[in-house]
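Sanity check. The docking grid for zinc ion depends on where the pocket ends up, so I'm generating a full predicted complex first rather than guessing from homology. Inputs follow.
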Amino acid sequence: MSVLISPSILNADIGDLAGELKKIEGADWAHVDVMDNHFVPNLSWGIPVVEAAKKYSPVPIDAHLMIEDPDRWAPAYIEAGAASATFHAEAVKSPIRLAREIRAMGGRAGLALNPATPIDAYIDILDEFDMVLCMTVEPGFGGQPFLASVMPKVERLRELINKKGLETWIQVDGGISADTIAQAAEAGANNFVAGSAVYKAEDAGEAVENLRLLASQHVHP
Ligand code: DX5
Ligand code: ZN
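Predicted complex below; grid placement will be based on this.
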């Protein structure tokens, strides 16, 4: 299973977006957290920032949509240049229809689950998604502590994906650092979002490489 490191720009200096993105050229994806102050109690940014990130990023854009009504808005993020759009199970009305729409546009479709949301309702439709994001914090803010209680869900999901012979990525997001990435990899995750662990580090590039090394030592074969 290849390890993918996806730094979140939530903690980056947005006044120098191009410079901040350049720092993560050794990563695999740039994770852009879209928050609407309805689905989560915080407001970040939307389509214009994804367009700007697309223009300057050395790696593809992974849009994490923490928004109400993703059925209405998610396709616009693919149109704006995101290579992947992840919508929340708690907000989406028609997950299959939306995932198919995103894929038909050439994007990767991601399904996000909050820490308390079970995977059960999605087991039979896992092949509709390119990625399942298991949130390891309650969404809304960077810098929160990792919830190890989500790991059994990641383990179960990895078993199900393998049993079905799918290529679906498992992403973890929230509190991922040098202290927590190994247990997430061991549980079965292969795509790791890290905000503060990358952008609060002295050398963001070095932080990415360190996380990659730690994850590689623990990721499932
Ligand atoms: C939380 C966001 C995360 C966040 C991660 O709602 O989805 O992507 O930026 O930040 P850290 O790594 O600091 O927990
Ligand atoms: Zn995120």
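Relevant for the grid: The chain has a mean pLDDT of 98.
Also worth noting: Strands lie at 4-7, 30-35, 61-66, 84-88, 108-113, 131-135, 169-173, 191-194.
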